[in-house]
From TrEMBL:
Keywords: Oxidoreductase. One of its GO terms (molecular function) is alcohol dehydrogenase (NAD+) activity. This is Iron-containing alcohol dehydrogenase. The lineage of its organism: Bacteria, Pseudomonadati, Bacteroidota, Flavobacteriia, Flavobacteriales. Pfam families: ADH_Fe_C (PF25137), Fe-ADH (PF00465).
Amino acid sequence: MLNFEFKNPTKILFGKGEIAKISTEVPKDAKVLMIYGGGSIKNNGVYDQVKEALKDHNLQEFGGVPANPEYEVLVDALNFIKENNITYLLAVGGGSVIDGVKFLSAAANYDGEPWEILKKPVRTFEGEGMPFGTILTLPATGSEMNSGYVISRRETNEKLSSGGPGLFPQFSVLDPEVIKSIPKNQIANGIADAYTHVLEQYTTAPSSADLQERIAESILISLQNASPKVMSDDFDYDAAGNFMWCCTMALNGLIQKGVITDWAVHAMGHELTAYYGIDHARTLAVIAPSHYRYNFETKKGKLAQYAERVWGITEGNVEEKAEQAIVKMEEFFHSLNIQTKLSDYTQDFNGTAERIEKAFTERNWLGLGENKNLTPKDAFKIVEMSY
Ligand code: NZQ
Ligand code: ZN
């Protein structure tokens, strides 16, 4: 097991009715800005619960953060924060709103041009960001319990990430009831995103970190078990709760400790969202099968372990099990109505692989993946395989 440090300071408030407790989590003397997305919280009762809980606080609001949070909208929010001397941020939404709030937390106390934070990127250390809490309305990203974020800039077709230990939420409320109002395509996205988060940290090389590997496998199995229940029209509180906690646990830092991690699927996937606006999770389902087939030799040991321990495949040699694992993964995405070829999403895909190769080269991303040896030319080939 590799050396590691682990600190995750986010307090989780899990369960039905927990939103009410933010009245004591948000400091009484704070000037609070509640930030939300396109308005789903106004239709499902979450907005009303927040307003009720914070009725004795100094509370203002900023709505309209779009999916794949847009830099220009966030700059408007940043100006609002500065003009109104806001001291505390409250994200109420999915990964996009939470990521937007993390960017604002970092930018509020940053002196330079805000885009530099993503372009360079600039990390935010403890005490440097504006404090914030979150109320999660869409299980998927794990942003509610990690310190990373991803921001899009449509003007330049860029989607870039940053983060730092100063950007953990102080608290996050996880009420499984919020799942009732989520459209099925977004639930599917959440499952696929969390599932791929585990794979990015797991599908590398066999390691001696037995506990991390078995926690990762348990998250995959639990997501598989919860999926048909949360995709069904009948609301199942326990399935919703399991799904929600799996998503958080998939990317709160725990399973990546002491092991090597990949994240090349996300790097390529973000480009597909930037160019075509394809939902984040679906870009991962497009890239992952090609990525695992392209890097089969280095990943086959772990793929075979995934086949055995997660899918119960006992027949065949390592190569056969590893290939079956990729097929099982594809079938799982298909069971969620998520397609796994780029051509399922756009007919305008010619040139995408070249564009990604060029973008990675320009950004000096010359060695991605767990062994830091995946070149822009390799990315070209993987993306081309995914057409
Ligand atoms: O904007 P509203 O009206 O709220 O609607 C949203 C949005 O249209 C809707 N929604 C959310 N909760 C709902 C709901 N609709 C009904 N009922 C509810 N309870 O769902 C739509 C999608 O929301 P969004 O926040 O965009 O989805 P998600 O949570 O999947 O976040 C995606 C973003 O997170 C980034 C992605 O790249 C993407 O930009 N990621 C962030 C990560 C992180 N910070 O650790 C890691 C991930 O890999 C990912 O990259
Ligand atoms: Zn993701």
